[in-house]
C-alpha cells in the first residue's frame, strides 16, 4: 500500500518543484494520463486494503491504462472528436468508486 502512495507523493512533489509547463496542445494528453495514473494508484490502495494487491497487476494496469487513454485521445484528435472525454468520465467514475471503497474500509 505504501509504494503507490509514495510514488504519488514523489510525483506531486517533483511537479511542484520542477514547475514543468505543458503546452496547450498536450494538455489533454497530460490530463488523461494523470487521471489514468491516479486511478491505478487508488485501485492499488484499494486492492491492498482488500488483501489482493499484486505488483504486476498494478504496474501493467498503470502503463496500459495510461497508454489506452492517450491513444484514445490521439485517435479522437485525428478524427476531430472529443474522445478524451470518454477517458475522463471513465477514470473519474472509477476514482470516485475507489475513494468510496477506501473510505468505507476506514469507517
Molecular structure report:
With 107 residues, the protein is mainly alpha-helical. The protein has one domain. Helix content is 83%, strand content 0%. It contains four helices and no strands. The chain is globular, with a radius of gyration of 15 Å. The chain starts with a helix and ends with a helix. The mean pLDDT is 88.
Mean pLDDT: 88
In quaternary terms, these chains amount to single chain
Order of helices and strands: HHHH
Count of DSSP E strands? 0
Strand content is: under 5%
Broad shape: globular
Radius of gyration: 15 Å
Distance separating the two termini: 18 Å
Helix count from the secondary structure assignment = 4
By helix and strand content, what is the structural category?
Answer: mainly alpha
Count of domain modules: 1
Helix content: over 70%
Sheet of most strands: none
Which helices and strands, and how do they pair?
Elements: H1 2-18, H2 27-50, H3 55-79, H4 84-106
Helix pairs in contact: 1-2, 2-3, 2-4
Structure keywords:
mainly alpha; 4 helices; 107 residues
Tell me briefly what this model is:
This protein has 107 residues and is mainly α. Helix content is 83%, strand content 0%.
